[in-house]
Protein: Nucleoside-diphosphate-sugar epimerase
Amino acid sequence: MKILLAGATGVVGRRLIPLLVQAGHEVAGTTRRPGRADMLRELGATPVVVDALDASALRKAVAAERPDAVIHQLTDLSDEDFEANSHLRIEGTRNLVEAALAANVETMVAQSIAWLYKPGDTPAVETDPLDPSLPPYEGVAALENAVAEMPRGVVLRYGALYGPGTWYAPDGAIAERVRAGSLRLAPSWTSFVHADDAASAALAALDWPAGAVNIVDDEPATTADWLPVYSAALGAPTPGSAGKHAATTGRPVSNAKALNLGWKPQFPSWRTGFSQMEGSAAMNGSRSD
Ligand SMILES: NC(=O)c1ccc[n+]([C@@H]2O[C@H](COP(=O)([O-])OP(=O)(O)OC[C@H]3O[C@@H](n4cnc5c(N)ncnc54)[C@H](OP(=O)(O)O)[C@@H]3O)[C@@H](O)[C@H]2O)c1
Structure:
């Protein structure tokens, strides 16, 4: 198939291009920056330079590529309040859906998040309600509703992405906070997914039926569970009590639907993923306690 990958230069996009190519697909990948075109070519995609917030340019670009399916991995984390991301989810997704529909594309696979479920005692499944009081709700609901307008719109509700290039990488923002001692134990839940597994889910989802699917690993964890393991992997001191951090919820998240659809994470638990972090204390062979 011919795939248009919007957000091809991101953490997930860069991993996804080779997977798509290996699976026999032809890939056109978007970036706003002409300077990233060579990187996309090297990964195996034809670069398409376009801003998703420019509706008419995006419509022209999608029409010119004539894709069979569109994958949406657009994210904008340029401000601390996530306002740019919310705007991109609302306007960028609207523009992408309209451009895809105008080009008679039937399938769209889009990135959403798995930490918006209302609190509860059991692992959240896709039919459970989202919590409108949480700040990302407006953007996420707009994105998911727009994607549902496609003849086949699949929404991937990703857990907290970790792995090289993410906030959890040894050079990432969360690692810095842990080393600075500003991230602390808390009772809230995080459901993780390795960036490689996020990419493999996007490839698999090209064949999935319409609807939302949680893409998280097998082991949702409270901050009290994962933070000491993560800190040890970084060689940082184990943090004290109380506090909160991004991507947490009052509830673990279930991946049963994704597993039933045939997705098999390469990292079924963050325990393995953290211990294999490049530059981690375990990988360096040093003691971490
Ligand atoms: N996804 C989330 O909601 C979220 C929340 C918290 C933390 N994180 C962290 O963010 C990282 C996730 O990586 P990611 O792949 O989702 O994001 P990313 O690595 O920041 O990639 C974002 C992609 O979106 C593209 N993009 C952004 N604005 C665009 C626009 N207006 N028009 C067209 N393209 C646009 C970028 O392209 P160009 O820049 O090349 O134009 C890039 O390809 C991880 O480190 C994760 O820990 C993500």
In short: The longest helix spans residues 83-102. The first strand starts at residue 2 and ends at 6. The radius of gyration is 19 Å. The chain is about 35% helix and 15% strand.
